[in-house]
Amino acid sequence: MTEVGIKKAEQSHINETVRVIAVTSGKGGVGKSNVVINLAMAMDKLGKKVLILDADLGLANVDVLLGLNPQYNISHVLKGEKHISEILVQGPGNIKIMPASSGVQEMTHLSNEQKILLMDMFESMPMDFDVFLIDTGAGISDMVLYFNVIANEKIVIFTQEPTSLTDGYALIKVLYQKHGERYFKVLVNNIESEKQAKTIFSQISKVADHFLDGISLDFLGCIPKDQAIPKAVMQQRPLMEVFPESPAAKSFMNVAKRLLMTPPPSEHGAVRLFWKKLLNV
Ligand SMILES: Nc1ncnc2c1ncn2[C@@H]1O[C@H](COP(=O)(O)OP(=O)(O)O)[C@@H](O)[C@H]1O
Ligand SMILES: [Mg+2]
Hints:
By secondary structure, the protein is α/β, with parallel strands linked by helices.
């Protein structure tokens, strides 16, 4: 980084070594939003400052799951009505949420003036984050691919359902073939046993290794089927808060620890690079 760059980073308190992690899936309803919230909670408990970027375009469910009612979203920033720091919503613990399900699609075709304005805003954000967790939504739409590409780590959620396997694999394949993405972390959700999760992982790995040369899939862990999750959803409170002793909550803690222990792949570190990629500059 140049001297000017360093000064700017110091002034703006930007943490240059933020990890940008997309939580994604081929199929909807596999548990992405719950994973995002509870991994965020687990990392918060482990002392990390987490920003959730809710980029599930159709369904902004992070706020619903947390019982929040954000007044503003990224579209207000783009219209020049709000500063980026004014749209951040306080979640549980130290977690902040950037509501983006509305407006973020516009970020792919901004004017140069808008890009400069946003870049300035990002750089003057008051809070320092260790981790950005992005709820990308499901499928292989351009926006889902876009958020996966700009994140430097990708967690793909699978369940035991055959459609989750085929759709998740299809997503990995498109990211590999069209965007040259090679590193993926696999999280198996809603399963009966760890053995079952490992069987699912080895099925996906086998196919990926065979057809996608040089791909690297890591088993990040699994979250058991646990009725505490729908109960927490009904209460619109995070599982980690209402049922911290539940098997699923304990698994989220283990997955978060494993995630934080594993060094991120290359390209890690440049938060400004992330904002630049986000703005396509
Ligand atoms: N491990 C689990 N055990 C039991 N139910 C789960 C589990 N994970 C998710 N669910 C349920 O599945 C539904 C979909 O989860 P959600 O996080 O909204 O999925 P997505 O964001 O992928 O669409 C929720 O109603 C949630 O209660
Ligand atoms: Mg969701």
